[in-house]
Amino acid sequence: MTFKVLVKLWEEYKQKYGDAAYKHISELLREAKELHRRDFLKNPTPMGDHEQSWRSFKGKNLEKLIAYVIKDEVESLGLRLINGNTLELTKSENLSRELSTVKRNLLVDYGEFGAHLPDLDIVIYEPETCKVIAGISSKVTLRERIAQTGYWKIKLSKDEATKDIKVFFVTPDEDGTLTLRIPTKKGRAIVEIDTDGSYVMSETQIEEDDKVKMFDQFIGDLKALVNKRRQRDKRHG
Predict the structure, then answer these.
(1) Is the separation of the CB atoms in 83 and 136 below 8 Å?
(2) Could you give the angle at which helices 25-42 and 3-17 cross, rounded to 10 degrees?
């Protein structure tokens, strides 16, 4: 099974559900899992079982699917996006000048222990300046990475060069961590205090606020963020 299968499913879900297709990501993943299982049984591998193979596939491809979903609208704002692993795993001399500059603009300085990239699945940046606007982490549930995402936001905020970079979490929230604001589960508390917000791809009704919103608000918020930053940069020459 390949990523193209997920894209095909997404396009089918868009036809079926329209603008609400994002609410059915978990449904899409369940359908994809069954297709993956059939392929796995036809072509078994000597390592692991199907569940292990599926978790690996889902982990690698959910972020790619989210990037696919938002790519056109992100680019309509004059921005570009890149997979975080591309920056992490590619030597700077093998990157384009643009991406090499983006990479440098995202580094976290650990002093004598070197400079390292934060673990972000998607990086959104201004192509003209190569300034990073935002990073996105994406997992099916918050417990898989939310504390790590909060850590990277804190590290980025402590350096003058990276303090303006926003860090978001996009998730189907299959364990319902974000559903209620009060009483607050640990994962939502981390979102509220230590990140710039989370966008939920789910049919479940959530208690929204400034930090926790449904996914359909992401592009509007990104547009407002970019316009504000561009106006500020224009004022300061």
Answers:
(1) no
(2) 140
pTM comes to 0.94
- The fold adopted by the segment(s) 3-235 is Rossmann fold (3.40.50)
Average pLDDT score over residue span 224-230: 93
Dump pLDDT digits (tens) for 20-53.
999 999 999 999 999 999 888 887 666 568 888 8
Task: Please state the domain extents for the chain.
Answer: 3-235
